[in-house]
Write a structure and sequence with these properties.
Blueprint lengths: L1 E3 L2 E4 L5 E5 L2 E6 L2 E7 L5 E5 L6 H9 L3 E5 L5 E5 L5 H14 L1 H29 L6 H20 L3 H19 L23 H23 L18 H7 L3 H14 L8 E3 L5 E3 L1 H16 L1 E3 L6 E3 L3 H14 L12
Parallel strand pairs: 2-6, 6-7
Antiparallel strand pairs: 1-2, 3-4, 4-5, 7-8, 9-10, 11-12
Length: 343
């Protein structure tokens, strides 16, 4: 269990949520394992299939405490909330700002600032940790270039210009991404990002990691009452979770990219975990996906100190923390959305 900004996260599986007076009681294997006063909570998020009592759901609905149910892997299932106006007001504000390109740019630039900042510090850590195995001068030059772009992004008020700056930063980051692969370099190499379909082992893994991160982020956004399909940087497109793609920009490098690199460099995966189709698409085998998913779930349990909140949380709760912060900004509780800037 974990408290985060007045939200209770029940991350253990097979935990039943029940009501006792004005308290939520957590029961596992017919034993009470936790008890929390409900007057301190704004929402509850449960990862599991066991469920909650009708009495608890009714109590929370009457008091505008939402209960979100996610699968153990983090996929959003449902959200229970009473007949309050809060969720409607939040989404109306989201839709209103999304229609305003200037307002959208002012929000979206925070996502991109964090993405570029996090990429920069990934490169800086490589120069510190592996100076004899990489081109330090090349890494430093690109790091300085990313530093020079950040002030432009901070002031950018045009979505097209913002996308151009983000693309420029991504091209430079990708120039040295392959050098961060330190093991199995004959079988794992990176020249450029390829998708639909991925054309090499690394791109196959990156695509899978981004899909998982997008799903986790969409679930986090839905859990706080936001519409994961209405974004600010990524515009509306049927079937695309645009806001999830916006928020996950901050986490692509420090979460997904670093995860993929660790699987390669620690030799968790090897060349036998991939196969190529006739059209050139490189795919992961069923066994490789299972290894990948197991490692992904383990990664989500690793603890970090959130750079803005200062709280010790798991990596798996980072998208949820950012979703809460974004909702608070849209409600007017924060002057600006604080992106995830990891160093």
């Amino acid at each position: 269990m974990r408290h985060l900004l007045n939200t209770l996260y029940v991350t253990q599986q097979d935990v039943y949520l029940s009501l006792d007076g004005d308290n939520i009681v957590l029961i596992k294997d017919q034993e009470k394992i936790g008890r929390f006063p409900l007057h301190n909570l704004e929402s509850i998020v449960s990862f599991g299939y066991t469920g909650a009592s009708p009495a608890l759901m009714g109590y929370c609905a009457e008091r505008n405490i939402s209960i979100a149910f996610l699968t153990p892997s983090g996929r959003f299932q449902a959200r229970v909330i009473g007949p309050s106006k809060g969720n409607v007001v939040l989404r109306k504000k989201q839709y209103l700002l999304s229609e305003d390109e200037l307002a959208s740019a002012r929000i979206a630039r925070n996502f991109i600032v964090a993405k570029v900042y996090n990429h920069k510090w990934m490169l800086e850590r490589m120069t510190r940790d592996y100076p004899l195995r990489i081109d330090v001068a090349g890494f430093k030059a690109i790091s300085q270039h990313l530093s020079s772009i950040i002030p432009e992004i901070r002031e950018c008020e045009d979505l097209e210009r913002l996308r151009g700056l983000e693309g420029q930063a991504a091209v430079n980051y990708n120039k040295v991404f392959g050098q961060m692969i330190l093991q199995q370099t004959d079988d794992f190499y990176f020249h450029a990002r390829s998708r639909r379909p991925p054309q090499d082992n690394v791109n196959a893994m990156l695509s899978f990691a981004y899909t998982l991160l997008a799903n986790d982020t969409a679930s986090a956004l839905e859990a706080v009452g936001l519409d994961a399909y209405v974004g600010f940087l990524h515009r509306d497109r049927p079937g695309r979770a645009s806001l999830a793609l916006d928020v996950m920009e901050e986490l692509r490098g420090v979460y997904a990219d670093k995860f993929v690199l660790s699987l390669i460099n620690k030799k968790v995966v090897n060349k036998d975990d991939f196969f190529k189709k006739e059209n050139g698409a490189v795919l992961m085998t069923d066994g490789a996906r299972k290894k990948f998913l197991t490692a992904w779930q383990n990664k989500k349990q690793e603890k970090i100190t959130h750079p803005y909140l200062g709280e010790n949380i798991s990596w798996g709760l980072v998208p949820h923390a950012q979703a809460i912060l974004l909702a608070r900004f849209l409600r007017g509780d924060l002057d600006e959305y604080p992106p995830f800037m990891w160093k």
